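Before going further, learn to read the protein records used in this course. The integers have meaning only within a learned vocabulary of local backbone shapes. The record below shows the convention in full.
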Amino acid sequence: MSKEEEVLEELKKIRELLSPPPPPPKPKNLFEEFKQFLEKYKVVGIAVAFIMAIYLGALIQSLVNNLVMPIIELFLPGVDWESVKAGPFRVGAFIGDLITFVIVAFVIFMLVKLTTQFGEYSKKIQEKVGQVID
């Protein structure tokens, strides 16, 4: 085989690798279409994440109300933090909600950071495994 033929063969292999996969077959019935929808958009995973987020929010709200704010009340004895008002504004309740928001944002930040690091670590492992196999 000449050098040109080898290059052409290699280019054909590259073209095959880069060509998009064929579209999935048309669903046969409504059930199959619904099943493809669930798989394509990962609806179950999204639902689980949504439910977990609801309970995480409730847990953090409990953390703020039952642990953080009582510590603040130690520094403000005799003051119910939820009833602190400035005119018609419930400043105490707002501060409690603000603390809850900051904690939720920090937890989400840490989850995203950890999953990103895990993804990078996973890619490195896959590259090393690929090098060993080759």
Observations:
- The chain has one domain: 28-133.
- Helices lie at 3-18, 30-41, 43-75, 91-133.
- The mean pLDDT is 85.
